[in-house]
UniProtKB/TrEMBL annotation:
It comes from the Bacteria. It comes from Novosphingobium aquiterrae. This is Envelope stress response membrane protein PspB. Keywords: Membrane, Transmembrane, Transmembrane helix. Residues 69-96 are annotated as: Disordered. The keyword Thylakoid does not apply. The gene is pspB. NCBIfam families: phageshock_pspB. Residues 73-90 have a biased composition (Basic and acidic residues). The chain crosses the membrane at residues 6-23.
Amino acid sequence: MDDWIAIVAIFVGLPWLILHYITKWKTAPTLTNDDEALLEELFQLSRRLDDRMETVERLVAADNPEFTPRRLPARDELPETKLADFDRALSRRTAK
């Protein structure tokens, strides 16, 4: 009797479980137009806030020469050598 339960579990239960979750994965909701619009709005808001922070930092730096900004560097301020080294290391790793 125990053998039949194991056989049924392997040949019926396991494929049913796998197919069930594949179907759930394929019918999962994707980004809608409203979601994309919200993301675009949030992105624009973050850009405006970043511009405001830069303005405030420039004003404070003009009043206090010892002031150093404590925020993360912008993408264009990052050193290119580190990114190039990362890209080379990543390409070597994926080539293996």
